[in-house]
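From the methods appendix. Each design record in this collection lists the tokenized structure first, followed by the designed amino acid sequence. Records were kept in a plain field format so they could be parsed without special tools. The example shown here is representative of the layout used throughout.

RECORD:
FOLD TOKENS (229 positions):
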């Protein structure tokens, strides 16, 4: 007959096995979740590229960049004159502009109200905004002259979700993105330097992002990124 001490030790051992098994199951679920998230992000990136390609009938393959190029990014402290020139250009044209500084100090991000670029529900740019893009392009050309490289990104703020009643608003956003893309190209910014898209959870604003590089980053696509890994 088993004594009470032996039975208590046996019960404790069973509980330890259960706790250890539960811990292993939690770790397994955690790694499964990480794998699911990484796969979802890749699929989402593909969907965005296909959407841009279908919307603007252009080749968006040059936007397929997965690797980080922080080591090639220039520091804004080394481009003080250029950054000041761009900020003054926007401030003199659009007083409501705000600067959102990146944590890495490697890019200039400006936030503007939508009505600062577009008038009411019109698709075309407001008066004088084409001249703003041309002056901005002229300022950025100085980066090429000095042997550097830049990218111009334009993001249109939108709400987190688009229901059925907001399809017309989404259509307006896409048409305005097309107008901005055409205006930027006409201003003289090369198409391989241009990126346009939507900024979630920031309705009522548009964003101009300028990234500066010491040199042109390599063009890495989905297929070449997999091969390198």
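DESIGN:
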């Amino acid at each position: 007959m088993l004594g009470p001490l032996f039975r208590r030790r046996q019960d404790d051992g069973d509980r330890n096995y259960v706790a250890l098994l539960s811990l292993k199951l939690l770790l397994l679920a955690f790694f499964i979740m990480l794998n699911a998230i990484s796969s979802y992000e890749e699929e989402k990136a593909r969907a965005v590229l296909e959407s841009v390609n279908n919307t603007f009938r252009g080749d968006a393959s040059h936007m397929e960049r997965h690797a980080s190029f922080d080591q090639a990014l220039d520091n804004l402290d080394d481009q003080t004159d250029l950054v000041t020139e761009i900020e003054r250009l926007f401030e003199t044209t659009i007083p409501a502009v705000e600067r959102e500084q990146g944590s890495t100090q490697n890019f200039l991000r400006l936030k503007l109200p939508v009505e600062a670029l577009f008038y009411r529900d019109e698709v075309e740019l407001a008066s004088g905004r084409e001249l703003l893009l041309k002056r901005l392009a002229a300022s950025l050309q100085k980066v090429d002259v000095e042997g550097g490289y830049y990218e111009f990104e334009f993001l249109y703020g939108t709400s987190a979700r688009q229901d059925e009643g907001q399809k017309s608003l989404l259509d307006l956003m896409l048409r305005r993105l097309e107008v901005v893309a055409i205006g930027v190209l006409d201003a003289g910014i090369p198409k391989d330097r241009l990126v346009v898209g939507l900024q979630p959870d920031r309705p009522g604003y548009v964003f101009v992002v300028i990234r500066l590089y010491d040199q042109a980053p390599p063009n890495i696509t989905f297929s070449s990124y997999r091969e390198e890994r």
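APPENDIX NOTE: The chain has five helices and five strands.
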